[in-house]
Specification:
two-stranded antiparallel ribbon; Serine Threonine Protein Phosphatase 5, Tetratricopeptide repeat; elongated; mainly alpha; 29 helices
Protein backbone atom coordinates (compact mmCIF):
# COMPACT_ATOMS: atom_id res chain seq x y z
CA UNK A 1 0.00 0.00 0.00
CA UNK A 2 1.59 3.28 -1.10
CA UNK A 3 1.72 6.41 1.04
CA UNK A 4 -1.15 8.15 -0.77
CA UNK A 5 -3.56 5.26 -0.17
CA UNK A 6 -2.49 4.99 3.50
CA UNK A 7 -3.10 8.73 3.95
CA UNK A 8 -6.55 8.57 2.42
CA UNK A 9 -7.44 5.49 4.45
CA UNK A 10 -6.32 7.24 7.64
CA UNK A 11 -8.41 10.31 6.87
CA UNK A 12 -11.44 8.17 6.04
CA UNK A 13 -11.03 6.44 9.38
CA UNK A 14 -10.85 9.84 11.10
CA UNK A 15 -13.99 11.05 9.30
CA UNK A 16 -15.88 7.88 10.20
CA UNK A 17 -14.94 8.11 13.89
CA UNK A 18 -15.84 11.80 13.99
CA UNK A 19 -19.22 11.25 12.31
CA UNK A 20 -20.20 8.31 14.51
CA UNK A 21 -19.04 10.11 17.66
CA UNK A 22 -21.07 13.25 16.94
CA UNK A 23 -24.19 11.31 15.94
CA UNK A 24 -23.94 8.39 18.36
CA UNK A 25 -26.85 9.77 20.38
CA UNK A 26 -29.36 9.01 17.59
CA UNK A 27 -29.14 5.32 18.49
CA UNK A 28 -31.24 5.93 21.61
CA UNK A 29 -34.05 7.52 19.58
CA UNK A 30 -37.28 5.74 18.81
CA UNK A 31 -39.66 5.79 15.86
CA UNK A 32 -41.48 9.08 15.31
CA UNK A 33 -45.16 9.70 14.62
CA UNK A 34 -44.14 11.77 11.57
CA UNK A 35 -43.77 9.61 8.42
CA UNK A 36 -42.04 6.75 10.27
CA UNK A 37 -45.41 5.00 10.51
CA UNK A 38 -45.81 5.18 6.72
CA UNK A 39 -42.27 4.08 6.00
CA UNK A 40 -41.87 1.41 8.66
CA UNK A 41 -44.05 0.87 11.70
CA UNK A 42 -47.53 0.72 10.10
CA UNK A 43 -46.46 -0.40 6.64
CA UNK A 44 -47.31 -4.09 6.34
CA UNK A 45 -45.11 -4.48 3.26
CA UNK A 46 -42.10 -3.26 5.23
CA UNK A 47 -42.83 -4.91 8.57
CA UNK A 48 -43.22 -8.32 6.90
CA UNK A 49 -39.69 -8.06 5.47
CA UNK A 50 -38.40 -9.02 2.04
CA UNK A 51 -40.65 -11.24 -0.05
CA UNK A 52 -41.55 -11.46 -3.72
CA UNK A 53 -44.89 -9.75 -3.05
CA UNK A 54 -43.20 -6.90 -1.19
CA UNK A 55 -40.48 -6.47 -3.82
CA UNK A 56 -43.16 -6.18 -6.52
CA UNK A 57 -45.01 -3.68 -4.34
CA UNK A 58 -41.85 -1.61 -3.90
CA UNK A 59 -41.41 -1.24 -7.66
CA UNK A 60 -45.07 -0.67 -8.52
CA UNK A 61 -46.38 1.43 -5.62
CA UNK A 62 -46.65 5.19 -5.34
CA UNK A 63 -47.38 4.87 -1.62
CA UNK A 64 -46.57 7.92 0.56
CA UNK A 65 -46.63 10.07 -2.61
CA UNK A 66 -43.25 8.76 -3.76
CA UNK A 67 -41.81 6.17 -6.10
CA UNK A 68 -38.56 5.03 -4.51
CA UNK A 69 -38.31 1.23 -4.64
CA UNK A 70 -34.70 1.07 -3.43
CA UNK A 71 -35.67 2.97 -0.29
CA UNK A 72 -38.52 0.54 0.38
CA UNK A 73 -36.17 -2.43 -0.08
CA UNK A 74 -33.71 -0.80 2.31
CA UNK A 75 -36.36 -0.51 5.03
CA UNK A 76 -37.46 -4.11 4.43
CA UNK A 77 -33.88 -5.29 4.83
CA UNK A 78 -33.65 -3.37 8.12
CA UNK A 79 -36.65 -5.31 9.41
CA UNK A 80 -35.03 -8.58 8.33
CA UNK A 81 -31.84 -7.65 10.21
CA UNK A 82 -33.12 -5.78 13.28
CA UNK A 83 -36.83 -6.46 13.51
CA UNK A 84 -38.68 -3.46 14.91
CA UNK A 85 -35.84 -2.30 17.16
CA UNK A 86 -35.35 1.36 16.12
CA UNK A 87 -31.67 1.30 17.09
CA UNK A 88 -30.79 -0.85 14.10
CA UNK A 89 -32.71 1.40 11.71
CA UNK A 90 -30.98 4.49 13.11
CA UNK A 91 -27.60 2.76 12.90
CA UNK A 92 -28.03 2.14 9.17
CA UNK A 93 -28.84 5.82 8.59
CA UNK A 94 -25.73 6.79 10.55
CA UNK A 95 -23.52 4.35 8.62
CA UNK A 96 -24.78 5.73 5.31
CA UNK A 97 -23.99 9.27 6.47
CA UNK A 98 -20.51 8.15 7.49
CA UNK A 99 -20.02 6.46 4.10
CA UNK A 100 -21.23 9.59 2.27
CA UNK A 101 -18.72 11.68 4.21
CA UNK A 102 -15.85 9.39 3.20
CA UNK A 103 -17.03 9.24 -0.42
CA UNK A 104 -17.16 13.05 -0.59
CA UNK A 105 -13.57 13.20 0.67
CA UNK A 106 -12.42 10.62 -1.89
CA UNK A 107 -14.26 12.37 -4.74
CA UNK A 108 -12.70 15.75 -3.99
CA UNK A 109 -9.18 14.36 -3.54
CA UNK A 110 -9.54 12.47 -6.82
CA UNK A 111 -10.81 15.36 -8.95
CA UNK A 112 -8.95 18.26 -7.32
CA UNK A 113 -5.72 16.57 -6.22
CA UNK A 114 -5.87 18.33 -2.83
CA UNK A 115 -6.13 16.40 0.41
CA UNK A 116 -6.47 18.96 3.22
CA UNK A 117 -9.10 21.07 1.51
CA UNK A 118 -11.07 17.96 0.64
CA UNK A 119 -10.78 16.79 4.24
CA UNK A 120 -12.15 20.08 5.56
CA UNK A 121 -15.12 20.03 3.17
CA UNK A 122 -15.92 16.45 4.17
CA UNK A 123 -15.61 17.36 7.86
CA UNK A 124 -18.11 20.20 7.46
CA UNK A 125 -20.44 17.80 5.68
CA UNK A 126 -20.05 15.26 8.48
CA UNK A 127 -20.90 17.51 11.42
CA UNK A 128 -23.13 20.28 10.05
CA UNK A 129 -26.36 20.65 12.08
CA UNK A 130 -28.51 20.99 8.96
CA UNK A 131 -27.87 17.30 8.31
CA UNK A 132 -29.33 16.08 11.60
CA UNK A 133 -32.75 15.71 9.99
CA UNK A 134 -31.42 13.42 7.26
CA UNK A 135 -29.54 11.22 9.74
CA UNK A 136 -31.77 11.18 12.84
CA UNK A 137 -35.06 10.59 11.01
CA UNK A 138 -35.64 6.98 9.95
CA UNK A 139 -38.10 8.07 7.26
CA UNK A 140 -35.31 10.11 5.65
CA UNK A 141 -33.37 6.97 4.75
CA UNK A 142 -34.13 8.03 1.18
CA UNK A 143 -31.93 11.11 1.64
CA UNK A 144 -28.74 9.40 2.81
CA UNK A 145 -29.35 6.46 0.46
CA UNK A 146 -29.85 8.53 -2.70
CA UNK A 147 -26.79 10.62 -1.84
CA UNK A 148 -24.75 7.44 -1.32
CA UNK A 149 -25.52 6.22 -4.84
CA UNK A 150 -25.11 9.75 -6.17
CA UNK A 151 -21.61 9.94 -4.70
CA UNK A 152 -20.78 6.57 -6.27
CA UNK A 153 -22.07 7.92 -9.58
CA UNK A 154 -19.68 10.89 -9.36
CA UNK A 155 -16.77 8.56 -8.60
CA UNK A 156 -17.76 6.47 -11.64
CA UNK A 157 -17.90 9.65 -13.70
CA UNK A 158 -14.37 10.65 -12.68
CA UNK A 159 -13.28 7.12 -13.61
CA UNK A 160 -15.00 7.45 -16.98
CA UNK A 161 -13.35 10.83 -17.65
CA UNK A 162 -9.94 9.23 -17.15
CA UNK A 163 -10.55 5.93 -18.94
CA UNK A 164 -13.15 6.87 -21.58
CA UNK A 165 -14.35 3.25 -21.78
CA UNK A 166 -17.78 1.66 -21.62
CA UNK A 167 -17.56 0.01 -18.19
CA UNK A 168 -17.18 3.19 -16.11
CA UNK A 169 -20.07 4.73 -18.02
CA UNK A 170 -22.30 1.71 -17.38
CA UNK A 171 -21.43 1.86 -13.67
CA UNK A 172 -22.22 5.59 -13.74
CA UNK A 173 -25.66 4.94 -15.27
CA UNK A 174 -26.38 2.13 -12.82
CA UNK A 175 -25.47 4.22 -9.77
CA UNK A 176 -27.48 7.18 -11.06
CA UNK A 177 -30.56 4.99 -11.55
CA UNK A 178 -30.19 3.57 -8.04
CA UNK A 179 -29.92 7.11 -6.72
CA UNK A 180 -33.10 8.20 -8.52
CA UNK A 181 -34.90 5.09 -7.27
CA UNK A 182 -33.94 6.06 -3.72
CA UNK A 183 -35.07 9.70 -3.94
CA UNK A 184 -35.78 11.68 -7.13
CA UNK A 185 -34.14 14.86 -5.83
CA UNK A 186 -30.88 13.69 -7.44
CA UNK A 187 -32.24 14.48 -10.93
CA UNK A 188 -29.83 17.42 -10.93
CA UNK A 189 -26.75 15.17 -10.84
CA UNK A 190 -26.01 15.47 -14.61
CA UNK A 191 -25.84 19.25 -14.16
CA UNK A 192 -23.43 18.79 -11.24
CA UNK A 193 -21.22 16.73 -13.56
CA UNK A 194 -21.25 19.58 -16.07
CA UNK A 195 -20.14 21.93 -13.30
CA UNK A 196 -17.31 19.55 -12.44
CA UNK A 197 -16.36 19.53 -16.13
CA UNK A 198 -15.87 23.28 -15.81
CA UNK A 199 -13.95 23.01 -12.53
CA UNK A 200 -11.88 21.19 -11.43
CA UNK A 201 -11.79 18.77 -14.40
CA UNK A 202 -11.37 21.66 -16.88
CA UNK A 203 -12.92 19.79 -19.79
CA UNK A 204 -14.62 22.83 -21.35
CA UNK A 205 -13.34 23.72 -24.81
CA UNK A 206 -14.55 26.52 -27.06
CA UNK A 207 -14.81 24.94 -30.50
CA UNK A 208 -13.93 21.50 -31.81
CA UNK A 209 -11.41 22.97 -34.22
CA UNK A 210 -9.53 24.75 -31.43
CA UNK A 211 -8.98 21.59 -29.37
CA UNK A 212 -5.89 19.44 -30.07
CA UNK A 213 -6.87 16.06 -31.51
CA UNK A 214 -5.18 14.05 -28.75
CA UNK A 215 -7.00 16.01 -26.01
CA UNK A 216 -10.33 15.73 -27.81
CA UNK A 217 -9.94 11.96 -28.28
CA UNK A 218 -8.94 11.53 -24.63
CA UNK A 219 -11.94 13.55 -23.51
CA UNK A 220 -9.75 16.07 -21.70
CA UNK A 221 -11.24 18.98 -23.67
CA UNK A 222 -14.61 18.94 -25.42
CA UNK A 223 -17.03 21.57 -26.74
CA UNK A 224 -20.01 22.23 -24.50
CA UNK A 225 -22.36 20.52 -26.96
CA UNK A 226 -20.28 17.34 -26.82
CA UNK A 227 -20.29 17.41 -23.02
CA UNK A 228 -24.08 17.58 -23.12
CA UNK A 229 -24.37 14.73 -25.64
CA UNK A 230 -22.01 12.65 -23.52
CA UNK A 231 -24.52 12.87 -20.64
CA UNK A 232 -27.66 12.44 -22.75
CA UNK A 233 -28.63 9.04 -21.21
CA UNK A 234 -28.38 10.61 -17.74
CA UNK A 235 -30.65 13.48 -18.78
CA UNK A 236 -33.17 10.97 -20.17
CA UNK A 237 -33.15 9.08 -16.85
CA UNK A 238 -33.67 12.39 -15.02
CA UNK A 239 -36.64 13.36 -17.22
CA UNK A 240 -38.26 9.95 -16.71
CA UNK A 241 -37.77 10.25 -12.95
CA UNK A 242 -39.39 13.71 -12.97
CA UNK A 243 -42.36 12.36 -14.94
CA UNK A 244 -42.87 9.43 -12.54
CA UNK A 245 -42.52 11.67 -9.48
CA UNK A 246 -45.02 14.25 -10.72
CA UNK A 247 -47.46 11.50 -11.71
CA UNK A 248 -47.30 10.01 -8.21
CA UNK A 249 -47.27 13.23 -6.19
CA UNK A 250 -50.02 15.11 -8.02
CA UNK A 251 -52.59 12.65 -6.67
CA UNK A 252 -52.04 13.39 -2.97
CA UNK A 253 -49.22 15.75 -2.11
CA UNK A 254 -48.82 18.32 -4.89
CA UNK A 255 -50.51 21.69 -4.44
CA UNK A 256 -52.55 23.15 -7.28
CA UNK A 257 -52.06 26.74 -8.44
CA UNK A 258 -55.45 27.55 -6.93
CA UNK A 259 -54.22 26.45 -3.50
CA UNK A 260 -50.72 27.94 -3.80
CA UNK A 261 -50.42 30.60 -6.56
CA UNK A 262 -47.27 30.82 -8.66
CA UNK A 263 -46.43 34.32 -7.39
CA UNK A 264 -46.48 32.99 -3.80
CA UNK A 265 -44.28 30.04 -4.75
CA UNK A 266 -41.69 32.27 -6.41
CA UNK A 267 -41.63 34.60 -3.42
CA UNK A 268 -41.27 31.70 -1.00
CA UNK A 269 -38.48 30.19 -3.13
CA UNK A 270 -36.46 33.42 -3.06
CA UNK A 271 -36.85 33.77 0.70
CA UNK A 272 -36.08 30.06 1.21
CA UNK A 273 -32.81 30.31 -0.75
CA UNK A 274 -31.60 33.04 1.60
CA UNK A 275 -32.80 31.12 4.64
CA UNK A 276 -30.92 28.01 3.50
CA UNK A 277 -27.79 30.09 2.96
CA UNK A 278 -28.16 31.74 6.37
CA UNK A 279 -28.69 28.45 8.20
CA UNK A 280 -25.72 26.91 6.39
CA UNK A 281 -23.48 29.68 7.70
CA UNK A 282 -25.16 30.03 11.10
CA UNK A 283 -27.38 27.03 11.92
CA UNK A 284 -29.93 28.42 14.36
CA UNK A 285 -33.61 27.76 15.17
CA UNK A 286 -33.58 24.45 13.29
CA UNK A 287 -36.90 22.62 13.16
CA UNK A 288 -38.41 19.51 11.62
CA UNK A 289 -41.10 21.67 9.98
CA UNK A 290 -41.03 25.30 8.85
CA UNK A 291 -44.64 26.24 8.08
CA UNK A 292 -45.74 27.97 4.91
CA UNK A 293 -46.58 31.57 5.80
CA UNK A 294 -50.05 32.93 5.04
CA UNK A 295 -48.53 35.65 2.86
CA UNK A 296 -45.08 36.79 1.80
CA UNK A 297 -44.67 40.61 1.69
CA UNK A 298 -43.55 41.87 -1.70
CA UNK A 299 -40.73 43.83 -0.07
CA UNK A 300 -39.38 40.67 1.59
CA UNK A 301 -39.47 38.53 -1.55
CA UNK A 302 -38.12 41.25 -3.85
CA UNK A 303 -35.38 42.06 -1.33
CA UNK A 304 -34.41 38.39 -1.18
CA UNK A 305 -34.34 38.22 -4.98
CA UNK A 306 -32.19 41.34 -5.22
CA UNK A 307 -29.71 40.02 -2.66
CA UNK A 308 -29.44 36.70 -4.51
CA UNK A 309 -28.75 38.58 -7.74
CA UNK A 310 -26.04 40.65 -6.05
CA UNK A 311 -24.38 37.53 -4.61
CA UNK A 312 -24.59 35.84 -8.01
CA UNK A 313 -23.04 38.85 -9.73
CA UNK A 314 -20.22 39.01 -7.19
CA UNK A 315 -19.55 35.28 -7.62
CA UNK A 316 -19.50 35.65 -11.40
CA UNK A 317 -17.15 38.66 -11.23
CA UNK A 318 -14.72 36.79 -8.99
CA UNK A 319 -14.96 33.47 -10.80
CA UNK A 320 -12.69 34.35 -13.72
CA UNK A 321 -9.74 33.50 -11.52
CA UNK A 322 -11.65 31.48 -8.93
CA UNK A 323 -13.78 28.98 -10.84
CA UNK A 324 -14.58 27.13 -7.62
CA UNK A 325 -16.80 30.04 -6.55
CA UNK A 326 -19.06 29.75 -9.58
CA UNK A 327 -19.19 25.95 -9.38
CA UNK A 328 -19.99 25.97 -5.65
CA UNK A 329 -22.67 28.65 -5.99
CA UNK A 330 -24.39 26.99 -8.95
CA UNK A 331 -24.14 23.61 -7.18
CA UNK A 332 -26.01 25.13 -4.23
CA UNK A 333 -28.63 26.97 -6.30
CA UNK A 334 -29.14 24.25 -8.91
CA UNK A 335 -29.46 21.16 -6.75
CA UNK A 336 -32.11 22.91 -4.62
CA UNK A 337 -34.32 23.60 -7.65
CA UNK A 338 -36.38 20.35 -7.40
CA UNK A 339 -37.37 21.13 -3.79
CA UNK A 340 -37.36 24.93 -3.68
CA UNK A 341 -41.15 25.10 -3.88
CA UNK A 342 -41.93 26.11 -7.46
CA UNK A 343 -43.59 22.69 -7.53
CA UNK A 344 -45.09 22.84 -4.04
CA UNK A 345 -45.34 19.50 -2.26
CA UNK A 346 -46.36 19.23 1.37
CA UNK A 347 -46.85 21.82 4.12
CA UNK A 348 -43.31 23.12 4.53
CA UNK A 349 -41.84 26.39 3.25
CA UNK A 350 -38.38 24.78 3.40
CA UNK A 351 -36.74 21.77 5.06
CA UNK A 352 -33.28 21.11 6.51
CA UNK A 353 -33.09 17.73 4.77
CA UNK A 354 -33.16 19.42 1.38
CA UNK A 355 -29.67 20.87 2.03
CA UNK A 356 -28.00 17.49 2.50
CA UNK A 357 -26.41 17.43 -0.96
CA UNK A 358 -26.74 21.11 -2.06
CA UNK A 359 -24.78 22.48 0.91
CA UNK A 360 -21.62 20.83 -0.43
CA UNK A 361 -21.38 23.71 -2.90
CA UNK A 362 -21.18 26.26 -0.08
CA UNK A 363 -18.58 24.16 1.74
CA UNK A 364 -16.42 24.08 -1.40
CA UNK A 365 -16.68 27.86 -1.85
CA UNK A 366 -15.79 28.48 1.80
CA UNK A 367 -12.88 26.06 2.11
CA UNK A 368 -11.21 26.92 -1.18
CA UNK A 369 -11.72 30.62 -0.46
CA UNK A 370 -10.14 30.36 3.00
CA UNK A 371 -7.25 28.35 1.56
CA UNK A 372 -6.62 31.05 -1.03
CA UNK A 373 -6.51 33.69 1.71
CA UNK A 374 -4.00 31.58 3.64
CA UNK A 375 -1.79 31.27 0.56
CA UNK A 376 -1.99 34.96 -0.28
CA UNK A 377 -1.38 36.16 3.28
CA UNK A 378 0.79 33.58 5.11
CA UNK A 379 0.49 35.47 8.40
CA UNK A 380 -3.24 34.64 8.41
CA UNK A 381 -2.70 30.89 8.27
CA UNK A 382 -2.74 30.21 12.00
CA UNK A 383 -5.76 32.44 12.77
CA UNK A 384 -7.67 30.94 9.82
CA UNK A 385 -6.81 27.40 10.92
CA UNK A 386 -7.94 28.18 14.48
CA UNK A 387 -11.16 29.74 13.16
CA UNK A 388 -11.85 26.69 10.96
CA UNK A 389 -11.26 24.37 13.90
CA UNK A 390 -13.51 26.49 16.09
CA UNK A 391 -16.32 26.38 13.51
CA UNK A 392 -16.10 22.59 13.29
CA UNK A 393 -16.23 22.26 17.09
CA UNK A 394 -19.18 24.67 17.25
CA UNK A 395 -21.10 22.85 14.50
CA UNK A 396 -20.40 19.50 16.20
CA UNK A 397 -21.75 20.80 19.50
CA UNK A 398 -24.90 22.26 17.89
CA UNK A 399 -25.46 18.96 16.08
CA UNK A 400 -25.02 16.98 19.30
CA UNK A 401 -27.51 19.24 21.10
CA UNK A 402 -30.06 19.33 18.28
CA UNK A 403 -30.11 15.58 17.72
CA UNK A 404 -31.39 15.23 21.32
CA UNK A 405 -34.61 16.89 20.15
CA UNK A 406 -35.21 13.88 17.91
CA UNK A 407 -35.38 11.38 20.78
CA UNK A 408 -39.18 11.10 20.45
CA UNK A 409 -42.15 12.87 18.88
CA UNK A 410 -43.01 14.91 21.97
CA UNK A 411 -39.52 16.40 22.20
CA UNK A 412 -39.27 16.95 18.45
CA UNK A 413 -42.48 18.93 18.02
CA UNK A 414 -42.12 20.77 21.31
CA UNK A 415 -38.79 22.03 19.98
CA UNK A 416 -40.35 22.98 16.63
CA UNK A 417 -43.04 25.01 18.41
CA UNK A 418 -40.37 26.78 20.46
CA UNK A 419 -38.34 27.94 17.44
CA UNK A 420 -41.09 28.67 14.88
CA UNK A 421 -44.22 30.84 14.92
CA UNK A 422 -47.84 29.88 14.14
CA UNK A 423 -46.79 26.32 13.38
CA UNK A 424 -50.22 24.70 13.48
CA UNK A 425 -48.98 21.38 12.13
CA UNK A 426 -46.30 21.11 14.83
CA UNK A 427 -49.05 21.66 17.45
CA UNK A 428 -51.10 18.99 15.70
CA UNK A 429 -48.24 16.47 15.74
CA UNK A 430 -47.46 17.28 19.37
CA UNK A 431 -51.12 16.63 20.15
CA UNK A 432 -50.84 13.23 18.46
CA UNK A 433 -47.72 12.41 20.47
CA UNK A 434 -49.42 13.40 23.74
CA UNK A 435 -52.42 11.28 22.80
CA UNK A 436 -50.14 8.27 22.31
CA UNK A 437 -48.84 8.90 25.84
CA UNK A 438 -52.48 8.86 27.10
CA UNK A 439 -52.22 12.55 28.07
CA UNK A 440 -55.68 13.26 26.66
CA UNK A 441 -56.30 16.67 28.21
CA UNK A 442 -52.88 17.96 27.08
CA UNK A 443 -53.55 16.64 23.59
CA UNK A 444 -56.93 18.39 23.47
CA UNK A 445 -55.19 21.65 24.41
CA UNK A 446 -52.85 21.28 21.44
CA UNK A 447 -55.70 20.51 19.05
CA UNK A 448 -57.55 23.58 20.35
CA UNK A 449 -54.52 25.69 19.36
CA UNK A 450 -54.59 24.06 15.93
CA UNK A 451 -58.24 25.07 15.51
CA UNK A 452 -57.33 28.66 16.35
CA UNK A 453 -54.42 28.79 13.91
CA UNK A 454 -56.03 26.78 11.08
CA UNK A 455 -59.80 26.42 11.61
CA UNK A 456 -60.32 24.37 8.45
CA UNK A 457 -57.75 21.69 9.29
CA UNK A 458 -59.97 18.61 9.42
CA UNK A 459 -57.50 16.23 11.06
CA UNK A 460 -57.55 18.22 14.31
CA UNK A 461 -61.31 17.71 14.61
CA UNK A 462 -60.87 14.02 13.77
CA UNK A 463 -58.36 13.51 16.55
CA UNK A 464 -60.45 15.44 19.04
CA UNK A 465 -63.28 13.06 18.18
CA UNK A 466 -61.00 10.07 18.75
CA UNK A 467 -60.04 11.37 22.20
CA UNK A 468 -63.64 11.98 23.21
CA UNK A 469 -64.50 8.47 22.02
CA UNK A 470 -61.66 7.11 24.17
CA UNK A 471 -62.99 9.11 27.11
CA UNK A 472 -66.39 7.44 26.71
CA UNK A 473 -68.19 10.41 25.15
CA UNK A 474 -69.38 9.05 21.76
CA UNK A 475 -71.93 11.84 21.16
CA UNK A 476 -69.23 14.50 21.54
CA UNK A 477 -66.91 12.40 19.38
CA UNK A 478 -69.44 12.14 16.54
CA UNK A 479 -69.92 15.94 16.65
CA UNK A 480 -66.22 16.49 15.92
CA UNK A 481 -66.11 13.69 13.35
CA UNK A 482 -69.05 15.25 11.50
CA UNK A 483 -67.27 18.62 11.40
CA UNK A 484 -64.15 16.92 10.07
CA UNK A 485 -66.16 15.13 7.39
CA UNK A 486 -67.71 18.41 6.23
CA UNK A 487 -64.19 19.81 5.76
CA UNK A 488 -62.70 16.64 4.24
CA UNK A 489 -65.47 14.46 2.76
CA UNK A 490 -63.05 12.04 1.07
CA UNK A 491 -61.11 11.24 4.24
CA UNK A 492 -61.01 7.50 4.90
CA UNK A 493 -59.80 8.17 8.47
CA UNK A 494 -62.82 10.33 9.30
CA UNK A 495 -65.25 7.76 7.86
CA UNK A 496 -63.47 5.02 9.84
CA UNK A 497 -63.68 6.87 13.13
CA UNK A 498 -67.32 7.82 12.66
CA UNK A 499 -68.03 4.16 11.92
CA UNK A 500 -66.29 3.07 15.13
CA UNK A 501 -68.25 5.60 17.19
CA UNK A 502 -71.57 4.58 15.59
CA UNK A 503 -70.70 0.92 16.13
CA UNK A 504 -70.11 1.65 19.83
CA UNK A 505 -73.59 3.20 19.98
CA UNK A 506 -75.15 0.13 18.36
CA UNK A 507 -76.06 1.98 15.15
CA UNK A 508 -75.06 -0.91 12.89
CA UNK A 509 -76.47 0.16 9.52
CA UNK A 510 -74.98 3.67 9.77
CA UNK A 511 -71.62 2.18 10.80
CA UNK A 512 -71.72 -0.24 7.84
CA UNK A 513 -72.24 2.66 5.42
CA UNK A 514 -69.14 4.45 6.69
CA UNK A 515 -67.02 1.27 6.76
CA UNK A 516 -67.98 0.65 3.12
CA UNK A 517 -66.89 4.18 2.29
CA UNK A 518 -63.52 3.50 3.94
CA UNK A 519 -63.07 0.37 1.82
CA UNK A 520 -64.04 2.26 -1.33
CA UNK A 521 -61.21 4.71 -0.62
CA UNK A 522 -58.78 2.13 0.82
CA UNK A 523 -59.63 -1.48 -0.15
CA UNK A 524 -56.75 -2.87 1.95
CA UNK A 525 -57.77 -1.26 5.24
CA UNK A 526 -57.45 -4.19 7.65
CA UNK A 527 -59.26 -2.50 10.53
CA UNK A 528 -62.28 -1.65 8.39
CA UNK A 529 -62.56 -5.23 7.13
CA UNK A 530 -62.33 -6.62 10.66
CA UNK A 531 -64.77 -4.18 12.24
CA UNK A 532 -67.21 -4.61 9.37
CA UNK A 533 -66.99 -8.35 9.94
CA UNK A 534 -67.87 -7.81 13.62
CA UNK A 535 -70.90 -5.65 12.76
CA UNK A 536 -72.15 -8.10 10.12
CA UNK A 537 -71.61 -11.02 12.48
CA UNK A 538 -73.85 -9.28 14.99
CA UNK A 539 -76.53 -9.01 12.31
CA UNK A 540 -76.03 -12.72 11.45
CA UNK A 541 -75.11 -11.84 7.87
CA UNK A 542 -72.65 -14.73 7.82
CA UNK A 543 -71.53 -14.68 4.17
CA UNK A 544 -70.65 -10.99 4.22
CA UNK A 545 -68.92 -11.31 7.59
CA UNK A 546 -66.87 -14.30 6.35
CA UNK A 547 -65.80 -12.30 3.29
CA UNK A 548 -64.46 -9.39 5.39
CA UNK A 549 -62.81 -11.56 8.07
CA UNK A 550 -61.10 -13.56 5.31
CA UNK A 551 -59.81 -10.39 3.68
CA UNK A 552 -58.49 -9.11 7.03
CA UNK A 553 -56.61 -12.41 7.51
CA UNK A 554 -55.24 -12.27 3.96
CA UNK A 555 -53.94 -8.74 4.46
CA UNK A 556 -52.58 -9.46 7.95
CA UNK A 557 -51.91 -13.20 8.38
CA UNK A 558 -51.03 -12.83 12.08
CA UNK A 559 -54.36 -11.19 12.94
CA UNK A 560 -55.68 -13.86 15.31
CA UNK A 561 -58.88 -12.03 16.28
CA UNK A 562 -59.89 -11.89 12.62
CA UNK A 563 -59.02 -15.57 12.19
CA UNK A 564 -61.19 -16.51 15.20
CA UNK A 565 -64.04 -14.39 13.86
CA UNK A 566 -63.74 -16.13 10.50
CA UNK A 567 -63.86 -19.59 12.09
CA UNK A 568 -66.85 -18.64 14.28
CA UNK A 569 -68.84 -17.34 11.30
CA UNK A 570 -68.06 -20.46 9.26
CA UNK A 571 -69.29 -22.64 12.15
CA UNK A 572 -72.44 -20.57 12.63
CA UNK A 573 -73.21 -20.65 8.92
CA UNK A 574 -72.75 -24.43 8.85
CA UNK A 575 -75.13 -24.78 11.78
CA UNK A 576 -77.94 -22.80 10.18
Amino acid sequence: MNRSIRTKASFCFFLSVLTITVYWGVLRNGFLNYDDFQYVTNNRHVTSGISMENVVWAFTSGYAANWHPITWLSHMLDVELFGMDPRGHHLVNLLFHSANTCLLFLILTRITGTVWRSLLVATLFAVHPLHVESVAWIAERKDVLSTFFGMLAIIAYSWYVRKRTAWPYLVLCGCFLLSLMSKPMMVTLPFVMLLLDYWPLQRFGTRDADIPVEQRQAGKKLPFSRLIIEKLPLFIFAVLSCYITISVQKVEAMHTLQVTPLSFRIGNALVAYLSYLGKTVWPHDLAVLYPLPKTIPLLESSGAGLLLLLISYAVYALSHKRAYLLVGWLWFLGTLVPVIGIVQVGLQSMADRYTYFPSIGIYIMSVWGISELAIRWPSWRVPLAVAAGGIIVMYSFITWRYEQSWVDSTALFSHAIDVTADNYYAHYMLGNALYEENRFEDALDQFAIVRQLEPRFADAYTNMGIIYAKMGQPTEAIKYFTTALSLKPESKDVHYNIAVALQAQGKAEEAIAHYNEVLRLDPENVGAHYNLGIVLMGLERWDEAISHFAEAVRLKPGFEDARRGLQWCIQKKAGT
